[in-house]
């Protein structure tokens, strides 16, 4: 079960103004939280749909993906603290480099490197994923992102899909503010209550997959030409789209007819969670 602190973390991200309830599909919802071993082996899915009242920027889409990755890792007990807090405490634990006036002072004792080393490696891996996600979003439209927790890329224990096919991309002047969209997104997740019924899990690895144009030129992510989205395990799909009379809708609809030129790319690192 997700602890109270994790629910409070989700609540911290909510927008203050009222918002409509998200669309949540109930199919096989009981299986999402566990159930019999036979049911657990089947494919259990839920989805949450969030409609933004206007276009968003490509950088905003990247921000949605990064924030959801942080949120999933924390809610699924792969991070002992929310990402920003973990960054703060892990970096504070590093020994301070001596300055010129510190020559006569006793050097600090090295920190306990048991969990600290794991923390530093996790942060390095995540920062690399975030940086290269930004790079691929700058090179190509990204219709879908997968966050695969546990198992492997072909058979994960849990799968979180971010569906961006319905997004309308606009320039910075005409697009919605990204922070308000993030609040709306997490408000919808909070109302859908998609994490509270899940049981705690052990430390596992997390893989990130990104769908992009085959000729986008990204060289960090590894192309997976024949990759198929897994059909076993537990799945949550977050469908993001834009409503309103956006001038970018028509061009976006034209793009959806050529998704066949888009392939899956896999991050070359597996983000390994850790417990305190």
Report on the structure:
There is one protein chain. The protein has eight helices and nine strands. With 276 residues, the protein is an alpha+beta fold. It starts with a helix and ends with a strand. The model is unreliable at 14-19, 24-43, 103-114 and 247-251 (pLDDT under 50).
Q: Tags for this entry?
A:
single chain; 276 residues; alpha+beta; nine-stranded mixed β-sheet; 34% helix; globular
Task: Describe how the helices and strands are arranged.
Blueprint: H1 4-12, E1 23-24, H2 29-32, H3 37-41, E2 43-52, H4 58-75, H5 83-92, H6 113-139, E3 144-149, E4 158-166, H7 178-192, E5 205-213, E6 222-224, E7 233-242, H8 249-255, E8 262-266, E9 271-272
Parallel strand pairs: 2-7, 4-7
Antiparallel strand pairs: 1-2, 3-4, 3-5, 5-8, 5-9, 6-8
Helix pairs in contact: 4-6, 4-7, 5-6
**If you compute it from the alpha carbons, what radius of gyration comes out, rounded to the nearest whole angstrom?**
20 Å
Average pLDDT over all residues: 80
Share in helix: 25-40%
Based on secondary structure, the structural category is alpha+beta
- The parts where pLDDT drops under 50 for at least 5 residues are 14-19, 24-43, 103-114, 247-251
How many β-strand stretches? 9
| Tally of helical runs | 8
Strand content: 15-25%
Order of helical and strand elements: HEHHEHHHEEHEEEHEE
Overall geometry: globular
Q: Quote the distance from N terminus to C terminus.
A: 18 Å
Q: Major sheet, described briefly?
A: 9 strands, mixed
């Amino acid at each position: 079960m997700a602890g109270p602190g994790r629910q409070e973390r989700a609540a911290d991200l909510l927008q203050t103004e009222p918002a409509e309830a998200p669309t949540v599909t109930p199919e096989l919802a009981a299986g999402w939280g566990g159930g019999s071993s036979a049911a657990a082996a089947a494919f259990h899915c839920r989805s949450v749909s969030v409609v933004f009242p206007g276009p968003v920027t490509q950088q905003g889409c990247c921000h949605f993906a990064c924030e959801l990755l942080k949120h999933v890792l924390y809610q699924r007990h792969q991070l002992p603290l929310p990402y920003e807090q973990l960054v703060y405490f892990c970096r504070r634990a590093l020994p301070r480099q001596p300055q010129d006036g510190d020559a006569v002072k006793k050097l600090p004792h090295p920190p306990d490197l048991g969990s600290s080393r794991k923390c530093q490696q996790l942060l390095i891996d995540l920062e690399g994923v975030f940086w290269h996600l930004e790079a691929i979003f700058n090179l190509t439209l990204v219709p879908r992102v997968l966050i695969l927790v546990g198992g492997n890329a072909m058979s994960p224990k849990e799968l979180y899909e971010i569906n961006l096919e319905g997004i309308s991309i606009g320039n910075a002047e005409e697009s919605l503010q990204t922070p308000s969209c993030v609040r709306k997104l997490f408000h919808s997740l909070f109302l859908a209550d998609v994490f509270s019924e899940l049981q705690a899990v052990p430390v596992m690895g997390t893989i990130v997959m990104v769908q992009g144009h085959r000729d986008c030129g990204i060289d960090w992510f590894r192309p997976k030409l024949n990759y198929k989205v897994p059909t076993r395990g537990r799945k949550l799909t977050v469908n993001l789209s834009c409503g309103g009379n956006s001038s970018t809708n028509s061009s976006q609809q034209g793009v959806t007819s050529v998704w066949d030129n888009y392939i899956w790319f896999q991050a070359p690192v597996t983000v390994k969670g850790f417990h305190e």
